[in-house]
């Protein structure tokens, strides 16, 4: 493990569709002295950003394109087809790729599903980006199959989406350069994996300073001044012999002469 003192902050890259809010919040709670900087990147440039050192780690889409990068798979996304709200597909809950056989299925250049053979009919030209493809769907030129997070990212009121049951799925992972597994990278791995703040594999939070103990209040004196002994319980005054004088009205009555 290498040291992390050289970096004034932790730089976290993320590809479109990934929402790192939860993990960033936990980082800020546990390591408020180390600012976390978010770096938005396209899916195609994410690995180059990690290799160049412009980010310490990043949320990427698998597969990782090299043995020099480590990766922890996090989750697999649902794949959906984006269609106009008045499209026939909008009347059902889910479809298969066969149901799209007669549709023009747009295949943007930044596609993240890695189709070997996309379903449906190919468009005359491939859109440059997913955002461009969404505009074409809204224009009624075709439909688009993407991970659900991208459908939400490019949400439009005139479009909707439905699950595609047998399409390839995109997997999201946390990745970083193997040779740059710094203390801060280990800290973030611990957060993503759900380790507690006291985990031995993550950075230990500074222990809370113990509160100053309250001084015990002096015991109330129950005896005479400086005596250290409890006062006599008798209500009478002490007599010459040191005994307590009898109370008034006490003792036997005297006989009259």
UniProtKB/TrEMBL annotation:
The keyword Disulfide bond does not apply. Residues 22-194 form the LysR substrate-binding domain. Keywords: DNA-binding, Transcription, Transcription regulation. It comes from the Bacteria. InterPro entries: LysR_subst-bd (IPR005119). Residues 196-257 are annotated as: Disordered. The keyword tRNA processing does not apply. Belongs to the LysR transcriptional regulatory family. This is LysR substrate-binding domain-containing protein. It comes from Streptomyces polychromogenes.
